[in-house]
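Appendix B. One record, verbatim.
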Amino acid sequence: MDNMSPQQQQDSLTRGGQQENKRRMKFQSYRRQSAPSLVITKALTRSKTLSSSRESFLVPACPETCPLVQSFLTSSERFFLLYGHAQLKTGMQTQDRHLFLFSDVLVIAKAKSANNFKQKAQVCVCEMWTAGCMDEVCEGSTNPEQSFVMGWPTWNCVAMFSSADQKERWRSLLKSRIKEEKEKEEPKTIPLRVYGKGLNTFAVTKTLPVSNWDSANEVIRLALQQFGIIGNVKDFQLWVISKRDNTPYPLIGHEYPFSIQMSHVRNSAVQGGGRDVADRQMAMQMQVYKQCQFILKPRPVEPPQQHLPADFSQKSFKRRHSLITWAFWRGSSSHLNEMSLAGAARGCLFGQPLSSLCVEDALPKPVMDMLMFLYHEGSWTRGIFRRSAGARAVKELRESLDAGQFQLPLTRDHVFIIAGVFK
């Protein structure tokens, strides 16, 4: 500045002042924008290179070198088998997750960066199961060629992979590892206490010898024999009350009650260290009975099905149009109304216009009962609208209401079912 002429110094100060004014005006314009508008602006103006780079680090180049994988390879007996990316669906909820299968553990994680994953769940392979009843677990469209049901104690989900080859690879390897881990599991048989509810018998509790391969349907069959009840297994359902969730959970039929109880036994064994062996086993068994209970109850009676014409296809009832599809429909509103009225089954409650259901501006009794029940139980129930009660149980209650049976089972056992019907 000292070597510059007075005119040059004046021009330099002018340019500096103009740049400073531009920076100040730009900063003030950002301050005037609200936080949501900034987020929307950044999302709309985000470059393609940034979005593609974010998608690229979701799949690790070498899963074996991830810190998450290395943290589980502390034992010489454990080894890493398979990595995969899948969508896990339960009820109406869908989550993108990364799966890391070890010889004895399945780790479910969420991607944070190219080599960083946050663990969401850790499951013993010997406590897992697989099945194909996707309609019983989640709602919405699923591709059977790319999906299968997998689960662990008090949880079922539909795992949907990117291709049929990926699905078959995961399903076959999981089944193989579950079989091998169960063959090494000790003990092979445990006493399982089952409580009867609504069975019209004098006996309230029965203790059954259950093996690690007995499904929930097999336990129901053994329980019916012990209770002296002659009936079909499909007419009864086994429920689990776990202190982890603090809510009753209905089993579909393919789950392993042995694994459900043993998961609580292993958890109690970790918490009860430092005692004598006999005292620890006694305290552990009492703790398990408090934390995990199995209840056998009759299934709700299904209403009689209405006979349809022979030329009427049943396939049109399997999938209803999604609300998202309806929201982005480009047709006329009259066409939408005709389509919804034609595709929906008309009953006493569902599929009816609100004006024909309300009497003197009052909601129907089952709707008011559900509202009052959810008002009292909703604040005390964790994940009341997120957890699934099972598509079959929700469907049965909906059909009974639609057939005119307006008496709701308003107990804590049915909180997720009623929430599912109301939702």
